[in-house]
Amino acid sequence: MRAHCSYDYAVIRVVPRVDREEFVNVGVIVACPAKGFLEARIELDEARLLAFDPTLDLEAIRVHLASIPLICAGGPHAGPIGQLSQRERFHWLVAPRSTTIQMSRVHTGRCTEPGSLSEKLLEKMVRPLRAR
C-alpha cells in the first residue's frame, strides 16, 4: 500500500475585467512537497474569454500563462523566480494579485500519486461541464 501525502493546489484564472470580478478557470497548479512535485497545466479556452471581453489581448495572456509551467519546472530558463525552491515558487505563484491572471485560494488534500492530480483537477475545475 502506498503512503498518502499532503498536496496543495490552486486554480489559475483569467479575469478579463478586474473591475467586474468575472473570471474563467484556465489551469491548475499542484504542489506535493513530500514527493518533490510542482506542476502547472493550462487549458486556455479563448472563445470563453472573448465572450467576457472581445477586446482582450489574447497574445499577452498566452505569454503570461506560458510562464507559469516554466516557473513550476524551475531552472535557468524560468528566470529569477525559477531559481527559488519549489515551495517558494509555489507560494510566489499563488500569492494574491489584482491582475488579469489570478489564482484561487489554496486548497489542500491527500493523495498517493500527485502526478495524476493535475488531470483530475483540470476535468473538475477547468473544462466545461458536459451534459450527462
Topology, please?
Elements: E1 5-14, E2 24-32, E3 37-42, H1 46-52, H2 58-73, H3 86-94, E4 101-103, E5 107-111, H4 117-126
Antiparallel strand pairs: 1-2, 1-4, 1-5, 2-3
Summary, kept brief:
By secondary structure, this protein is of the alpha+beta class.
Structure description:
The protein is built from 4 helices and 5 strands; from the N terminus they run E-E-E-H-H-H-E-E-H. With 132 residues, the protein is an alpha+beta fold. The chain has one domain (5-108). Strands 1, 2, 3, 4 and 5 form a 5-stranded antiparallel sheet that branches. Strand 2 and strand 3 form a beta hairpin. Helix 2 (58-73) runs antiparallel to helix 3 (86-94). The termini are far apart.
**Given the helix and strand composition, which structural class is it?**
alpha+beta
Rg on CA atoms, Å: 15 Å
| Distance between the first and last residues' Cα | 34 Å
Mean pLDDT: 93
Please tally the β strands and state the result. Answer: 5
Binned, the helix content reads: 25-40%
The unreliable regions are none
H/E series:
EEEHHHEEH
The number of domains? 1
Sheet with most strands: 5 strands, antiparallel
Q: What's the total helix number? A: 4
Global shape = globular
Q: What percentage of amino acids are in beta strands?
A: 25-35%
